[in-house]
Amino acid sequence: MKKKSTSNSGSVSGRMPEVTPECIRKAIELDHISVEYQPKYDLAHRKVTGVESLARWNCPERGRIRPDSFIPVAESSGQIRTLGQAILLKSCLEFSEIRNRTNFPDLDLAVNVSGHQLRGCGLNDFVKTVTDALLQAKLPPKNLHLELTETTWCRPSDEILEQLTTLAEKGIHIVVDDFGAGAAGLNRLVQLPVLGVKIDKGFVQLLDRNNATNPTRVDPKQLLTEIIRFVRSLGLSLVAEGVERPDQAQWLLKKGCPIIQGFLVSDSMPKEKLISFLNAPKKLDFSLPDAPLLTSGEFSFSGNHAMPFFS
């Protein structure tokens, strides 16, 4: 489960009271932990392909508490298993409703998984947690993507590998999250039963860096180009997160990474807002007045070009 927050909206300024395991336990019991969803968008086919589920804590006394304030406490205290189970079930149930109320039968749901949810919980406990959530929500396994945080895929134990392999055999997609952000080697992609990779947003942010004045440094654009080429050569799906500007999306599309996630598409949003978002005819304004025309499949970028959400 991610420690980061994808939004500045609703954040509380000033010094916050300490978040304790007891606070988290009560928040779970009182259903104060909610879920928001951030869409993933396919630039080449002009459609939303999935959503990522993100935990949100709206405390009546403290206001909105950032995930990076409570997720580490939940992990260190062992509360992450109960919290993760609650988030997974809530996400699956709400996502089932989202599918039923929109015309998106192939939409996928991505849920973050921390290594702490898998370690020492019994060989089949996590597998049962996931399959039970799918059964209750009546969701096909193929529509669930489990995004493994670095704590999960950096040093996978035999126990973790067996659980992930069992889930993959059931048709659930295993995805490596924040790829390139940590110290894990590329051999992890061979060890794990992964079907997809999500490129860390730090690489997208590095696209702005110009190393022309210091040629001894690695060109971040060249590095990201090679990462995209490598992942695609393995036949894995690819998503770039943290995309905030049209020129970043344009560059990624040209290099072969058409699926993006970030503020350019949308901030995270609760269930009802997401349903309205998917049902309403909207457009993404990718106006690039000074940019050359770039094409990929059915989609093209050009000056003052507005991209429809749906074909």
Question: Can you characterise this structure?
Answer:
With 311 residues, the chain is an alpha/beta fold. The chain has one domain: TIM Barrel, CATH 3.20.20.450. It has 11 helices and 13 strands. An 8-stranded mixed β-barrel has the order 1-2-4-5-6-7-8-9, surrounded by 5 helices. Strand 8 (237-241), helix 10 (246-255) and strand 9 (259-261) form a beta-alpha-beta unit. The two termini are 33 Å apart. Mean pLDDT is 82; it is low at 5-14 and 288-311.
Question: Quick summary of this structure?
Answer:
The chain is of the alpha/beta class and 311 residues long. It has helices at residues 21-29, 67-77, 80-100, 125-137, 150-153, 158-169, 188-191, 201-205, 220-233, 246-255, 271-279; strands at residues 33-42, 47-59, 63-65, 108-113, 144-148, 173-179, 196-199, 237-241, 259-261, 283-286, 294-296, 299-301, 305-308. Strand 8 (237-241), helix 10 and strand 9 (259-261) form a beta-alpha-beta unit.
